[in-house]
Design brief:
homodimer, 414 residues, alpha/beta, Aldehyde Dehydrogenase, Chain A, domain 1, Aldehyde Dehydrogenase, Chain A, domain 2, 2 domains, 7-stranded parallel beta sheet, 4-stranded parallel beta sheet, 14 helices
Chain lengths: 414, 414
């Protein structure tokens, strides 16, 4: 289908979506979950086509695993939709209302964004997640998934549309762009007349391409060069546990730790203990001169290392003379995601919290907690690393806007 | 000065700006107001250069008037800054704080956006306003004013920087790009490493150019094709007063009414009364067939008229069969600014409020009220017509972001 047709279907659905009440939306979501489970065989067959193509194209094992659907994973997708149905509906809430001296009553009400465009890579479960979060907030969603997952995504969308049809909801509430060419993606990013916001989810390259080429407003998500600063006063055991967790618990995620900053006065004592622990997972350590001389097996870091998001068993180590240098190093190289300090100094903890410029700043905890579920939002559409609209993990509220509603009785401006 | 140097100065100032306390910021603002008044002669001399150039270039009278500075207008600029000093400081407020089951305490705190880029046209007072609003919220501002107001803007910025210097604040807190060429403006819009948000203020052409070319996140402001729908049940006197006010009280502003939508059952009775009133200001009326036949002196509208922001003594009239048609016409042609219904029907009022998609939706009041002062925000940096981040009049809150601050005692993710 042509992009413009998809846009028109979305626009048609949008005006109705914003008027659906919560109970209706929840019932549709529960039905959509049932449809996915009911369509398990079709979904597995479609996914097998994607898997065959991927294997033929020598996709690495890690990505193959992300692409794979199983009966259990389909049940998890359905369960994810049911969980979204159970969340509070933010739409329609009046955030503020006040009466002005001239008698006008000005209320501010939460409304859907309208049409959300998602551009993402190979995980098919994002298709169902994005639909659930957008539908719950009265938004229409247009999905542009990766070519690797095309058959899986088509099957998921068809299944979800089955539930929409059974519920009397226009199919345009969810659309998938099946032409995954660059040309069509470039056009999609400029459909300002049809799309209210674009959310890219994926690697740094994808996100950069969207930020650079889109004219539709974008919520930038994801890339995380997350630092942990080990202060002079840090508890070594705590620091090592936190670093080990943040680096190795899951390496391919944006809230994993990529860079360490260590106070020079402790580096000689601390690094031998840390290297020993990181060796358990064969983590490669790249350090500056002081770091290299502090323990065996640390290789010299190049300037590029300070800005790298490895997403691998690699970590960089920069040593600093004081907390000011640590903060300024972090503010220079970070990507605005998650940064942590390990310290027992109240003053340094507060200074770090106040002066480090990132979506989430931690004292004495792992950066791995930056995520909608861990923050208690119940669900997540992504993690914003920009400052406009939403910052940090984005739950349902990030998919809403507001509208001023003004009730008068004939007021004119003098 | 080179753009990159301006960017570096801004970055240097940014890290300090976010740590200034409210009292310090207010004192600087009060001093800045005094400096403007003290520098009145310099400001008038610089403005006279701009005025001479403008007259030589045959600038129309209306624009000349917007460019002109007088002793009184400089006093008003200073007073505007003092009023911003008197407003509550939103920065540092903890919006929410909760303890998670694992003991992490997650707080969300209001912080500055960072560096705000303003691209605007000829009114020099915007220079002082933008500085005051950004400074109050701990933001650095980089200004790109119009070439017509260059000397005035340079003098204003120099005066404000005098106050910064006297207060020990880095000059990079406010910068003016003196090279107003298109090439430099195009580069400015892509300085993602230095600028957190761009706010364009000006005509539709300027705003479109920024939305299309910027890679820095933009808050779209301003263009307003505002409609008033006169329902079958409207009180005619009220409708005529509201239309007269919204159309003619000030024609060059974005919240002026440009388009009328009228229920077909009342058009024959209503239009003769309305045309009579609008004649007082020689307003040209362009209508569809039913409108043209309803009263003398109405000229036929072309399709383009439905989408026009005239900013002139012209108004279009579309007749409709029912409120559904009115809403769908408005949702098709509006620019997401301000829309009003005049009605005595509770049901139609609620329907209009719920279904019209715009930043501000009115029942029985003039669209001219969409403005930060009228909404009680005390000040305004612009009126957002997009749905991300801020929608409608933007006061100080629209110049803030948030940051998650997480306090732990060694938590790692299981």
């Amino acid at each position: 289908m042509e992009l413009i047709q998809i846009g028109e279907l979305a626009r048609e659905a949008k005006s109705i979506m914003s008027t659906l009440d919560t109970e209706r939306k929840n019932n549709v979501l529960l039905l959509a979950a049932d449809h996915l489970v009911k369509d398990t065989k079709k979904l597995l067959a479609a996914n097998e086509k994607d898997m065959e193509n991927a294997r033929a194209n020598n996709m690495p094992q890690g990505l193959l695993d992300r692409l794979l659907l199983t009966e259990e994973r389909i049940e998890q997708m359905a369960e994810g939709i049911r969980q979204v149905a159970a969340l509070d509906d933010p739409i329609g809430e009046v955030i503020s209302e006040k009466k002005r001296p001239n008698g006008l009553v000005i209320g501010q009400k939460r409304v859907p964004l309208g049409v959300v465009g998602m551009i993402y890579e190979a995980r098919p479960n994002v298709t169902a997640d994005a639909f659930a979060l957008c539908f719950k907030t009265g938004n229409v969603v247009i999905l542009k998934g990766g070519s690797d997952a095309l058959y899986s995504n088509m099957a998921i969308v068809e299944s979800l549309r089955g539930a929409l049809k059974e519920s009397g909801i226009l199919p345009g509430a969810i659309s998938l762009i099946e032409d995954t060419s660059r040309e069509i993606t470039a056009k999609f990013m400029k459909m300002n007349d049809y799309i209210d916001v674009l959310i890219p989810r994926g690697g740094a390259g994808l996100i950069r391409a969207v930020v650079e080429n889109a004219t539709v407003p974008v919520i930038e998500t994801g890339t995380g060069n997350c630092h942990i600063y080990v202060d002079e006063s840090a508890d070594f055991d705590m620091a090592i546990d936190i670093i080990f967790n943040a680096k190795t618990q899951r390496i391919g995620v944006c809230n994993a730790c990529e860079s360490l900053v260590i106070h020079k006065n402790i580096v000689q004592k601390f690094m031998p203990l840390l290297t020993k622990r990181l060796k358990e997972k064969n983590v490669e350590i790249r350090g500056d001169e002081r770091a290299v001389s502090s323990a065996p097996g640390i290789v010299p870091a190049a300037e590029e290392d300070w800005g790298m998001e490895y997403l691998d068993y690699i970590i960089s180590v920069k040593t600093v003379s004081d907390i000011e240098e640590a903060i300024s190093h972090i503010n220079k190289y970070n990507t605005g995601h998650s940064e942590a300090i390990v310290t027992s100094s109240y003053e340094n903890a507060e200074k770090f919290l106040n002066e480090v410029d990132a979506a989430a700043v931690y004292v004495n905890a792992s950066t791995r907690f930056t995520d909608g579920f861990e923050f208690g939002f119940g669900a997540e559409i992504g993690i914003s690393t920009q400052k406009l609209h939403a910052r940090g993990p984005m739950g349902l509220l990030a998919l809403t806007s507001t509208k001023y509603i003004i009730r008068g009785n004939g007021q004119i401006r003098p």
